[in-house]
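step: validate -> pass
step: tokenize input -> pass
step: predict -> running
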Amino acid sequence: MALMHAHFFSNVLGMCVQADVILPERTVGQIGMEGTASDNYPTLYLLHGMSDDQTIWQRRTSIERYASEKGLAVVMPTTHLAWYTDTQYGMRYWTYISQELPEICRSFFKGMSTRREDTFAAGLSMGGYGAFKLGLRASETFSAVASLSGGLDVTGLGGRHQERNALFEGIFGDLSKVKGSENDLFYLAEKLKESGKPLPKMYQWCGTEDFLYEDNLKMRDHLRKLGYDLTYEESPGDHQWKYWDEKIQTVINWLPIAK
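step: predict -> pass
step: emit ->
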């Protein structure tokens, strides 16, 4: 695998941004890893949580090793504390992550597949919300999405974190109006199902001791009721990296990567 630290300008955000990118490489004799690659390799957009940045998946897991034998590219962008949303304060992080970033990556890295079938998203906590949002609002681009301990019900953010209401209002606007908006995953799932557009494959895991567990159960039941292709798993655990390191391996093995 090759690891790239990319610093580039986002026209959508109007500023320089960063993404760390793992690219497939055919290797022989590399200790502890077997590298494979294709001419059009699949790509996973791997999203961080509220307290982190584009480096965190490399610092807390062996993501490069996990992706290597699959010939999978992994794009790890930073999107700061914006909840993968076009914010009320004018920073269009949703447009950046869903449209501009894939276009930029495909222009930089010519081997990266442009096919929906080869384009995936996953994330933890806030990044789990972002990954499901990509699947439900940009299903024409992302064919499979995965959430680990996802913050999937943003309609309750104001009540759960009242000390951060100013932050959330800057992102989402009036918190009483988030429900039924294009930032509400429950609403987006209903809207996409009714649209006739392609539905993503979805994977969801949450620890049974996680403070987001009940929200994850609500999302599981909602997606099942709507008939989504959902793989749901739970196991003992709370909100920490020793579980996400294990489960991102499950996600990579679950991804529908063409042989």
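step: describe -> The radius of gyration is 17 Å.
step: cleanup -> pass
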